[in-house]
């Protein structure tokens, strides 16, 4: 998994052991219910909680988790493709697009079709297709594009939250659509996905980011900031997530890394961290902290940003990476079972309120990006392509 002289050997061993010795076996064995769908949430007793629904995005995020593990030689190679086709067929609306929720048996229970859910359907499609290379798998991506264009494309750029044009609009679904389009471009080479990716990067540049590098979250219909305090909210974790995506965009398009990557990183690092160097939940565009709790997903995005920046600058070792992995290991990852604390309060107290399965996607992506960099590989999707 990594060369003998890996500079972050200790961090890779920590991450690799948690993911592949503990988490993937656990989630493969216990994370799928009797109907073949991914559980929504677990309790801290390592038993699934029955919430009465299955979100499509959770199904699709778990497809990503199992597919990336399978491509790396761990887990069950048939599981991600089987889960993708089961979830995609169950969640596909008669008029196009993936519905928001299924009931526990797989019947639609909330038929709203959100752009956020379409993004993860597209991402799961890319990773399932990387394994099975079946045209019936890739067909879902093109069908989803048709739905987005027909029912969710906005005259002001980007996509609506849902066909009813609910407000406020958010940058977050577009961030994940970019992630999905890039994955689909890499695994297919189809220019349509590169062009969609470029459209979203352009929207980021023109609408989402302030002149100081702050990434706004909420907008009205023409992409003006939402009224009042809502339009000033910034989530440092998303700033770091965009940093990684802009590096991915540069890698796949052979374009220079967008200057916004450094601006987003600098704003988050200057204004979005607590005294321990962890990204807080929210600040505003002036850098004033609004919510000082710390979410696990945001730390994983911080790790991804540090990894691609170290990789791009050809550094062998980054102390921020070592510190972030240590923080995850000591304060978030549970050892008795491969579960985690979803967040820490401002005073550092871990929350036991809930443990959603959806966060495993963030952990898997950050951890395997560290392992990928240290192994000298460029992309697990590239390794999945036929020679």
From TrEMBL:
It holds the Pfam family GlcNAc_2-epim. The keyword Signal does not apply. Belongs to the N-acylglucosamine 2-epimerase family. This is Mannose-6-phosphate isomerase. Gene3D superfamilies: 1.50.10.10. Keywords: Isomerase. InterPro entries: 6-hairpin_glycosidase_sf, 6hp_glycosidase-like_sf, AGE/CE.
């Amino acid at each position: 998994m990594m060369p003998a002289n890996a500079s972050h050997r200790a961090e890779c061993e920590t991450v690799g052991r948690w993911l592949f010795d503990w988490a993937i076996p656990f989630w493969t064995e216990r994370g799928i219910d009797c109907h073949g769908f991914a559980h929504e949430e677990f309790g801290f007793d390592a038993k699934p909680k029955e919430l009465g629904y299955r979100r499509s995005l959770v199904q699709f995020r778990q497809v990503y988790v199992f597919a990336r593990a399978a491509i790396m030689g761990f887990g069950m190679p048939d599981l991600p493709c089987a889960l993708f086709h089961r979830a995609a067929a169950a969640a596909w609306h008669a008029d196009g697009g993936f519905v928001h929720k299924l009931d526990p048996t797989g019947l639609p229970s909330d038929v709203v079709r959100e752009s956020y859910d379409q993004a993860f359907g597209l991402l799961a499609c890319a990773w399932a297709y990387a394994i099975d290379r079946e045209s019936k798998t890739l067909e879902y991506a093109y069908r989803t594009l048709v739905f987005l264009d027909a029912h969710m494309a906005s005259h002001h750029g980007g996509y609506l939250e849902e066909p009813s044009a609910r407000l406020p609009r958010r940058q977050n679904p577009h961030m994940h659509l970019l992630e999905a389009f890039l994955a689909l471009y890499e695994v297919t080479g189809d220019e349509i996905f590169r062009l969609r990716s470029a459209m979203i990067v352009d929207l980021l540049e023109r609408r989402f980011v302030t002149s100081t590098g702050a990434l706004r979250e909420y907008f009205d219909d023409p992409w003006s900031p939402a009224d009042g305090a809502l339009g000033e909210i910034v989530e440092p974790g998303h700033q770091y997530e965009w940093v990684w995506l802009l590096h991915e965009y540069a890698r796949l398009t052979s374009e220079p890394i967008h200057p916004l990557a450094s601006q987003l990183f600098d704003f988050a690092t200057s204004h979005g961290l607590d005294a321990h160097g962890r990204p807080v939940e929210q600040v505003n565009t002036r850098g004033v902290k609004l919510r000082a709790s710390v979410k696990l997903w945001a730390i994983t995005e911080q790790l991804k940003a540090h990894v691609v920046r170290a990789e791009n600058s050809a550094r062998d070792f980054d102390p921020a990476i070592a510190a972030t992995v240590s923080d995850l290991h000591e304060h978030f990852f549970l050892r008795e079972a491969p579960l985690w604390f979803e967040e820490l309060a401002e005073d550092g107290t871990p929350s036991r309120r809930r443990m959603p399965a959806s966060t495993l996607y963030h952990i898997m992506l950050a951890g395997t990006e560290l392992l990928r960099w240290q192994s000298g590989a460029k992309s697990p999707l590239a390794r999945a392509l036929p020679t």
